[in-house]
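call fold(seq) -> tokens
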Amino acid sequence: MKNILQTSISQEQNSHHSHNISPYNRLLSVVKDLACVRTIEEIIEIVRLAARDLTNADGVTFVLRDGECCHYVDENAIGPLWKGMRFPLKSCISGWAMLNKQAAVIEDIYQDARIPLDAYKVTFVKSLVMVPIRVSDPLGAIGAYWSTPHRATPEEIGLLETLTDTTAVAISNVQLFQKLTNQNALKDKFIAMLAHELRNPVAPISNGVQLLKLKLGETGAVGETVLMMQHQIKHLSKLIDELLDISSITYGKISLNLEKFNLVDLVRQSLNAHAQAIKRSNLTVVEDLPNTPVWAYVDSTRFFQVFGNLLDNALKFSKPDGMIIWVDLSFIPGENGSGSVAVLSVKDSGIGIDPTMLPELFEPFTQADRSLDRSRGGLGLGLSVVKSLVELHGGNVEASSRGINLGAEFKVTLPVCEEITALDNDLEIIETAKKSLKILVIEDNDDSAVSLKAVLEYFGHEVSIAKNGISGVETAREFEPHVIICDIGLPGMDGFAVAQELSKDSKFSRSILIALTGYGGQEDKELALKSGFKCHLTKPVDFEILTAEIDRYFDGVLSS
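ret:
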């Protein structure tokens, strides 16, 4: 029986150990592997295999300290040991090694009083070495076991001690990585909550300012003041959006809604949206756009964001003295009819970029304006967002500048559709006649609800307000609105539940459900659409955007 056991052990050793790699090369390989791990489980897997290779042992265990217990987490051996078991520190040899902060070298387990023989009798173990992981403050131990009497050599002990030292560093790195990951997760939650809490007070202010603009116009001292307030509100909203976007992009939480668009039209629409900012800056924008469409699959909202950020950047860093900004869109055909791209260029003659800044310009929180007065503001996130969104579209962006006070140019390259059709210059835009709609606003913030109601009534709509989700559902069934504008963070019954409840009722099959909320993350948008909302808008909302969303479903609402 003994010969059979010895033969079995010998075969196990020959099959397990590689004699072609020296112990020191094996140890070097382990050090490299442990430098890349991100979880404790990966460390255990690497170390339990390496420990046996390095010592030619018949078995090894990986032990972690768990309070006043030793947890035998994993093993690699010719027979079962104690995997998954826990023992008091003072009753096992791994505990002795940790408590005494030194290795235990035992040639004969039956002759050492530190060994709990009852636990060992059922195993193959005759000799062992137990080395603590991190001697100064042990957090575990690695044990090597032999099935025949064996006095561990200084080399074997040294290799195990080096392995435990490396393991301690790897565990510390993993713990630091996990701590940073948790902190980043908390940071993301904080940013999302901060954005929500900032949007809540900004929304009624924006509503009120837009109402003042409608009633007072844009001329005179009051009108100019209203325009200034509106501009600053949009700037604040943009900062909030950038904070959320950079966090979402970093963790891959942004997805694109790709549709086929004519980039020429998108650039013109974006320029029109920036008309007031261009006029206010006393700058001239010269556009050079193709006379034929340039078709591409893009997320139009994100395209406006990319171009808008580049245009805002050019306006911000150009002196308000009539200087020129050039906007150019060109189509570059690919070879053999494939690989065609569109190149969108925004070039200014402003303050330029220090050449040392160019390599880091698209990194988050990089500031081109490093003056003490921070006259140009910003968080240093805009260009980072641009780069990430362009790359999500399969394109790239690059910046160039001849130096300080010599202007700058940003070029965005995007893949385009191969088919090019003639531009129809006879397209007519027919504005839908304004009609009065029944609109229900479900909003628990009184200021937001009242100011939104006032603006909608200005446009001739009949508006009712509900201050929580439950009363919102009840009011909807009584009022039977064409449009339901609903907040998400409602007391008692949140907006998602409201949308799900109303979507079950055939009475609202033609109603427009619009989420208007301070929660603007990608996951919030996706959940809103899954819950039954037609669209998701964040506070504060531009009423041109809100009315455009209503108009998208206008015919369906009134055809019942």
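The chain has four domains: 2-178, 186-249, 257-415, 438-558.
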